[in-house]
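At this stage, I put together a protein sequence along with its fold in token form, as given directly below:
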Amino acid sequence: MTDASLPETKQYEAQMGDYFALLKPRVMSLVVFTALVGLLVAPVAVHPFIGFVAVLCIAVGAGASGALNMWWDADIDVLMKRTANRPIPAGRVQPGEALAIGLTLSGFAVVLLALAANFLAAGLLAFTIFFYAVVYSMWLKRATPQNIVIGGAAGAFPPMIGWAVATGGVSLESVLMFALILMWTPPHFWALALFVKTDYGDAGVPMLTETHGRRVTRNHIMAYMICLVPVALGIAFTSIGGPIYLVTALVLNAWFLKGCYDIFKRNDAQADADNYAVEKHTFKISLYYLFLHFGALLAEAALRPWGLGGW
């Protein structure tokens, strides 16, 4: 992507909010929460200041990924109604500025995390930024309808990074937290894609709903949901799980599974008839699903010192 590939847009003086928007703050909030949980549920205590710096570095790294993604995708963002008002296509921030911000913040976050925590955590953060900016944004987003699955991997690394900050390693627990987010992303996003009218096709982005249709998308939602259930329940029987998490996971997975099954058995005519009410409801369930799973892990960790959490 180059500046010349963008249509000519009216130039505005950038405000601080425009630069902040480059960092995708809504995505960053999920990154911060899951990274914090990964750090706090680990079996090794971390000094509060080091923990604060580590989570800050992870947040900054996530923001850097967002800036690099917006820099690269500016040529298609300008073509889509959902993204046309982003800082670069709207002309409020120049592509070169976004690239400089993304690269600078990436270097700052990785180096500071290495100094504050350890090289493994910093390496995982560097790989996450590279994966999202290069593997996903520059390569596979426009090459495969499984792009959202691949992009979800970048969003799944934060709890693993948080765990590595505390322990200096990777374990079954951190891998399962990664897998929970990875498997959750497709049914979450594709439920949204079914009822949101997008213009990805016009922008040349091969989203599954555009390339294979809604029936295939419904099949994929159900398939990924079936894979998600054992991952979510399996966490309950690790060192970070316990009865609170198990009950929470059983309820949430039954709820989300039913919603995905209801989507799976519908056809386009039924969905159009009720304005995609089932898809919208299932998407809302997915929002609670991830937050409450990680919240339950946090509750287990908080109660464990009093002998109330864990098995």
Q: What stands out?
A: Residues 48-77 form the longest helix (30 residues). The radius of gyration is 20 Å. The mean pLDDT is 92. Residues 16-167 form a domain with the Tetracycline Repressor; domain 2 fold (CATH 1.10.357.140).
